Amino acid sequence: MTKTSVIIDGRAVTVDEGATILEAAKTINVRVPTLCHLHLEDLQMVNQVASCRLCVVEVAGRKPLLPACATPVAEGMEVRTNSKRVLAARRAVLELLLSDHPTDCLICVKSTNCELQKLAHDFAIDRERFRWEVNDYPEDTGSRALKRDPNKCIMCRRCETMCSEIQTVGVLTANGRGFEAIVGPAGMKPVLDTNCTFCGQCVTVCPTGALTGVSYVQDVWEALFDTSKTVVVQVAPAIRAAIGEEFGMAPGTAIPGRLAAGLRRLGFDAVFDTTFGADLTIMEESREIVERLHDQHHLPLLTSCCPGWINFLEFQFPDLRDIASTCKSPQQMVGTIAKTYYAERIGKRAEDIVMVAVMPCLAKKYEAARPEHTDSGVPDVDYVITTRELSKMLKEAGIDLRYIEDESFDNPLGESTGAGVIFGATGGVLEAALRTVYEQVNERELEDVNFTAVRGMQGVKEAEIRLNGKVVRVAAASGLGNARKLLTKIEKGESTYDVIEIMACPGGCINGGGQPYSQERAERIQARIEALYAVDKGQAVRKSHENPSVQRLYEEFLGEPGSEKAHKLLHTVYFRR
Amino acid sequence: MARINPEPKERLLATEGYAELDAYIDGLHLEPEAPRRKDTLIQALHRAQIIFGYLPDEVQLHIANRFYIPHAEVSGVVGFYNFFTTEPKGQYQVSVCMGTACYVLGADKVLQEFERLLGIRSGEISDNGKFSLDSLRCVGACGLAPVVTINDRVYGKVKPDAVEGIVEHYLVEEAQEA
């Protein structure tokens, strides 16, 4: 590639032709402040609207200051990144951004993770130089999942780029112009009235508190202190690989034992593991896969664990609903089994049990609130809180996960396998299903349980396995843009896959909208994925059908996979949204 | 085809209008996956506003679906340009130019006079639907400042005391037609 040489702050730099000043500066550790700019290399997403102007620099021979994020270098260019003029302009830009931004940092959920707050801190802003009008839009919490506070929008449009280009959902746009301009759904409608999937990827890129999740922390506290209720909790696989970050542990530290101990200290009467539901999902789903492959109908089977993906399917491809697996998600399976089988065992009624789910996800909140998820007679899952919300509850209660001994999950809904754990990463559901389907169909032991071809951050991964001598083609996609590509092929009859796993968030649940915020996103996601596979590897049982508690559940309660009772309790239906 | 947008909550506008709009959009020969299909979006919105007088959600959704794009994209364009309106306009659309030249020659007082006489604020429509009042930015006739346009007619060098006569003219015209 052709190289370009430039001088930045008196130092010579050679970079690839076409690189931006920002990129060139980075190579010599010159930090140009940015706010709207976002480059997610793993997703090939670049938000380069250059709207905030915080990264302006002085270029010799050019009169105006130029945005470093969107100005390509040119041979011989001389750049000053911290001249008096540059610093004065940046300060004015930041002060103007702050002039109409709410100053409620103390009670803002994004505090300490807010990029605007951090800039104000770094720039030592200690007064409100400008303060005129402020916007006064109402908050939007009607979806029970995604919370929008339009007054905190700074028009960086990262959310819009994520929603339109990566997820291809296209809910968000700039509304109005000038001072009133705000990013939101068409005509500033509530998100519930749009085709939002509640995947929450917008939340992961929002620099401020404009996009967050609807919190259920207070409801959970109330339940925990209500002595008339048995309050049980389930934690998704992805939580154990990420919550340590909130306590200052290195990314990629999986702490299932400490997490179970911490939840018990919070006062939960029983601490269950969503991985149990994952194993249960595999029992039901592998039966579906085997049946459909045998009859060669309703193929490819689409997995149904991810509620963001299901929302996408119901809205955008309603005619393909019937090829989705009818299995409930692991969260909902654990909820239903807790309020039926477990309730019976402990002699309680479903309405006396409060089921709290800790999820890396915002769409799970929406899923739990869906009216059809009441097979136990009451809502199967009462409250869903995110990894972030749980870490705050632990901190409020003075429970530090760094200094706590491992404990185990409670049986029976706490027993898990390696297969259940890898549900938290893209490809994991498929791999878990293959481990079980292979042994069920071929009736012999799988030599190597690791289907590494379906692992990793690549948008679409594929593999082939032989079942009864026949080649079965499978694929795993993460990110809704990748899902769209596969679904479009299915619609056109061009798909050659038999089973497709889809997760709405790029990389899977470990990168969900409820996970700890991070500026070093790509490395963290990779570390979290590796942590899950390490847990899987260290697990004695790595196949769902070998989970003893799952086997007992079928013996004592459900009969066999696909039985009438299993269908009533563990399967669901989809709607045209 | 993937379904991109929700159905409109209500569809109240005349089917003849939609037929006319569809005929126009058919002529654009849009392809679902052609990257340049959005190039003619503004023309289509323009046409729709001529047909319906305004661009409520139901029209925006119709156009979004015909262009195979999310409603948000259409809404973003409609919201960006002052020319487009999501509210119905009056039979007589009064626009007072507030561009620099008009403004320094007293356009604000002209606008105030229209507001007083019509009993509505700028951006509103009168109860009987006859008049709507807006300000706009520069119609390119600065030599005639201050400028007022009413539907297709342009009034130049308008002084506040001329406003009453203009309004009366339309009231008389209205009475004669009735």
Report on the architecture of this protein:
The complex is a heterodimer of chains A (577) and B (178). With 577 residues, chain A is an alpha/beta fold. Chain A has 3 domains: 3-98, Ubiquitin-like (UB roll) (Roll); 100-129 and 136-213, Alpha-Beta Plaits; 218-570, 3-Layer(aba) Sandwich (Rossmann fold), CATH 3.40.50.1780. Helix content of chain A is 35%, strand content 15%. Chain A has 20 helices and 19 strands. Chain A has helices spanning 21-27, 84-99, 115-122, 158-166, 201-205, 217-224, 237-240, 243-246, 256-266, 274-295, 307-316, 330-345, 363-368, 387-396, 418-421, 428-442, 480-491, 521-538, 548-558, 564-570, and strands at residues 3-8, 11-16, 38-40, 45-47, 56-59, 66-67, 78-80, 146-148, 172-175, 182-185, 211-213, 230-235, 270-273, 301-302, 353-359, 383-386, 460-467, 470-478, 499-503. In chain A, strands 2-1-7-5-6 form a 5-stranded mixed β-sheet, sandwiched between helices. Chain A has a 4-stranded parallel β-sheet with strand order 13-12-15-16, with helices on both faces. Chain A is globular. The model of chain A has no long low-confidence stretch (mean pLDDT 96). Chain B is 43% helix and 10% strand. Chain B is an alpha+beta fold. Chain B has helices at residues 15-26, 41-52, 57-67, 71-80, 100-104, 107-118, 163-177; strands at 92-97, 131-136, 148-150, 153-155. Chain B contains 7 helices and 4 strands. Chain B is elongated. In chain B, strands 2-1-3-4 form a 4-stranded mixed β-sheet, with helices on one face. Chain B starts with 14 loop residues before the first helix and ends with a helix. The longest helix of chain B is centred in the last third of the chain and has 15 residues, at 163-177. Chain B folds into 2 domains: 15-80, no CATH class; 92-177, Glutaredoxin (3-Layer(aba) Sandwich). Chains A and B meet through strand 9 and helix 17 of A and helix 4 of B.
